[in-house]
Amino acid sequence: MNKQAAATKTAGQPVTAAAITLIEAITQALAYEMRKDASVVVLGEDVGVNGGVFRATAGLQQVFGPERVLDTPLDETTIAGLTVGMAAMGMRPVAEAQFDGFVYPMIDHIVCHAARLRYRTRGRLTCPMVLRVPWGGGIRAPEHHSEANESIFTNVPGLRVVLPSSPARAYGLLLAAIRDPDPVIFYEPKRIYRQYKELVPDDGEALPLDVCYVLRDGSDVTLVTWGAQVKETLEAAEALAKDGISAEVIDVATLKPLDFATIAESVSKTGRCVIVHEAPKTAGFGAEIAARLAEESMYDLVAPVERVTGYDTHIPLFRLEMKYLPSVDKIVAAAKRAMAAG
Predict the structure, then answer these.
(1) Which residues are catalytic?
(2) Is the CB of residue 326 less than 8 Å from the CB of residue 277?
(3) Separation of alpha carbons 271 and 251, rounded Å
(4) With the C-alpha atoms ordered 140, 21, 252, 99, is the resulting torsion angle positive or negative?
(5) Strand arrangement, sheet containing 273-280
(6) Which of 31, 131, 268, 295 pairs as cysteine with 300 (C-beta 3.0–4.6 A)?
């Protein structure tokens, strides 16, 4: 066993808990659920023999066979249509989009069919599918490989949109997504796929969907973020603490439906809010959170809501990529503006 591994017990059964990366947590969750439920299948481009472009499905075809880990043609439209059809017929398919910029040909099937199946059939049919989407910038990828397009799907009724930020949350939330009776868009922040390790018991314990996670308590300003930006936001909170500013950090985790109550409770305490995301600023999901705060928490705010985001441009190639993404310095500056304003 890995020196960083430990053994725990759940319901009398030994459970291995090893320090693993986020990408390994994805593989671990898929393997657990495929062992538990024969209706779970994995499909996508190169997910079988090669284990996926990021190796998220490495070894699964060898264990579960080519009928449950399917290498598909290089055709995102077919992948999406096949996934919807399998889910409608009682299976629980987990499809991979390979890269975030490859979801656009899938939108017709996801929006027009997956998201509407329960509504259209008055509950006679559901669509228990997961679309895994490696998401975001920071890996020196070419065009169409570094998108942050989560707000497209948050606008679609009938979809859940999940975006974990750590190995433990990736494991628990993916299990919950696979078990959900309705379609889930599961974005995976590829910049932190292998950035650090965390002890994750392979116990099959799902985490609740539709819940924000308060990662750090604070009293002066609320920092709200998701995905890879959680790292920079926590670092910004540490930097602010050195200047005597107490920052509360919230990982949204499930964007749709949004656990706004947790955000509102924090803002009622701090009076200030900074929202951080790498998607473009205009109509990014941060705008929805800011609007809800204006509608429901106006009298709690003592300063305008700040947003630290990507720019309203396509994400640049690698020489300018990190200048595009939110940085610790930008988050700290926004928090200090909020402190100065009220």
Answers:
(1) 145
(2) yes
(3) 18
(4) positive
(5) 213-216, 247-251, 221-225, 273-280, 306-310
(6) 268
Q: State the residue for tokens 């399917």.
A: 70
Size of the chain in residues: 342
Predicted confidence at residue 342, as pLDDT, reads 73
Over the stretch 211-258, which tens digit does the pLDDT of each residue have?
999 999 999 999 999 999 999 999 999 999 999 999 999 999 999 999
The pTM of this model reads 0.94
Distance between CA atoms of 244 and 81, rounded to whole angstroms? 53
pLDDT of residue 13: 58
Query: DSSP secondary structure string, 192-256?
Result: GTTS--EEEE-S--PPPSS--EEEE--SSEEEEE-TTHHHHHHHHHHHHHHTT--EEEEE--EEE
φ/ψ of 149, rounded to 5, equals: -110, 30
SS3 string, 64-100, reads HCCCCEEECCCCHHHHHHHHHHHHHCCCEEEEECCCH
What pLDDT score does 14 carry? 63
d(CA 178, CA 297): 34
Instruction: Give the span between the Cα atoms of 340 and 342, in whole angstroms.
Output: 6
Q: How far apart are CA 101 and CA 279, in angstroms?
A: 13
